[in-house]
């Protein structure tokens, strides 16, 4: 990385153009959230915090945030436990058949979520899971598993298998080896997967549109309805908070990655 | 950890390991007596590590049995065997401190905290690492890491200590130092050690017994001196130090010896069961050949001319071209060489009848 030649002017401007292309649509909501108008627009005369005040004073918005947070936490838990065990199992068995299993676990990531949502709708109906906290948690948890499988598998690839042999040679049972040797070593990978699974649930809309209606009303759903029904700038305020929150999570993930590499 | 606890005897019976069509170990049988230091020595791919992994329980043998004090442990999983092991590269837990690493086997056994701490401290003392207890393994030098691995393998009073190339990651000087420590430790605790290495000097200096392996077969087992002086095959002679190979034929069998001919040269050789006319391969160590001065004689005498010479500090390594025996490598101690050996100088070489050892030719086996 050090002592190389810097990029040429063409590559440099292309890179910046890409950055702008990615970031501009996101940043546009920031001034909009400070608008003094009553509809989605850029500030006309002055900057105003009224939409933020509105957000924190609104029962409906706060309830949506609370529900989203609860579903995200519960589904993250589900995804982390299932994904970690799956990744460790595949790693331990290490045969070709486990490659197939691992590919299978990535399906929710590959299949369009609308297809997945239709399938869930068909199954959740008879099971009484439609419009239930449990239903949304299972749906988000299962679709969050791939993120955990990917990050934990990556952490395991860097895990020295002799550490496991050493632990067992010293008399450790499988569960002791798992708790004291394997899990602490792959913890940064698990944390990384948990963050992604959380973000996945936190901003998931398509599945929720299918399997929830009145009782379960998540934040993305609330924003969606808001855009459809009225152009309340409170949504921009919510969007800004979401961006800040996500950036925070990604920084956290970066910190875990650095720890894993050290 | 006191000297009164006896070591344990380990027996391998006709151990074989196959991986698909590849046979890693063939029919290996051997016994390590209580308190002995055995080294499995061989080039890479000789099956020595596979044997160690079968003893440890990480690899299941295809055939054969493993006995500890006469008890069959072939199917016992590694965590039930109570063997200490020092892995290649040590396999220390990077997320634990030195003390936590050493406490691990005790924690696994559910020892009370106070008891655990006392034994960790005693073991740290044993390997002289007391002041490093709270460090992480990555903050230690290679030699220190090796000692932590040793302490961790010994802290739970294992029945057997297994060492997988324990010194291979260290530089030459440190290796010699730790060899000495390992030897002292073995004497002090009286445990049975099984070591694996490809370094013949390490094997010779550490072990009571050495088992030499090649292509998955146990070629010869014995004390270091016996193996060096009386190799049974060409491979053993070549692998343990340097050796001159002399092809000859028995001209006349005598009591306890034979007269051999190699080209036009007659040699006398101490050996049993020689039959006239049969081909014999001799292994002759370079240091067993002496340079004869004018008037001196020996049981075997050969004339030659120096083809090349190299000065190695303690001695000169000289290659002598002879008419009938080809090139012979000779080591001349520096104090005996009155002038530096130079190319083209004629030399008369001599050796006694018991200097060489007849060996089987197994080079293409």
Automatic annotation (TrEMBL), chain A:
It holds the Pfam family BPD_transp_1. The chain crosses the membrane at residues 14-34, 69-91, 103-124, 136-159, 180-199, 234-252. SUPFAM superfamilies: MetI-like. It is a multi-pass membrane protein. The keyword Ribosomal protein does not apply. It is found in: Cell inner membrane; Cell membrane. The keyword Glycosyltransferase does not apply. PROSITE patterns: ABC_TM1. Residues 65-253 form the ABC transmembrane type-1 domain. Its main location: membrane. Keywords: Cell inner membrane, Cell membrane, Membrane, Transmembrane, Transmembrane helix, Transport. Belongs to the binding-protein-dependent transport system permease family. This is ABC transporter permease. It comes from Plastoroseomonas hellenica.
UniProtKB/TrEMBL annotation, chain B:
Part of the ABC transporter complex PotABCD involved in spermidine/putrescine import. Responsible for energy coupling to the transport system. Residues 10-240 form the ABC transporter domain. The keyword 4Fe-4S does not apply. Belongs to the ABC transporter superfamily. Spermidine/putrescine importer (TC 3.A.1.11.1) family. GO terms for molecular function: ATP binding. Its EC number is 7.6.2.11. This is Spermidine/putrescine import ATP-binding protein PotA. The complex is composed of two ATP-binding proteins (PotA), two transmembrane proteins (PotB and PotC) and a solute-binding protein (PotD). Pfam families: ABC_tran (PF00005), TOBE_2 (PF08402). PROSITE patterns: ABC_TRANSPORTER_1 (PS00211), ABC_TRANSPORTER_2 (PS50893). The keyword Membrane applies. It catalyses: ATP + H2O + polyamine-[polyamine-binding protein]Side 1 = ADP + phosphate + polyamineSide 2 + [polyamine-binding protein]Side 1. Keywords: ATP-binding, Cell membrane, Membrane, Nucleotide-binding, Translocase, Transport. Coiled coil: none annotated.
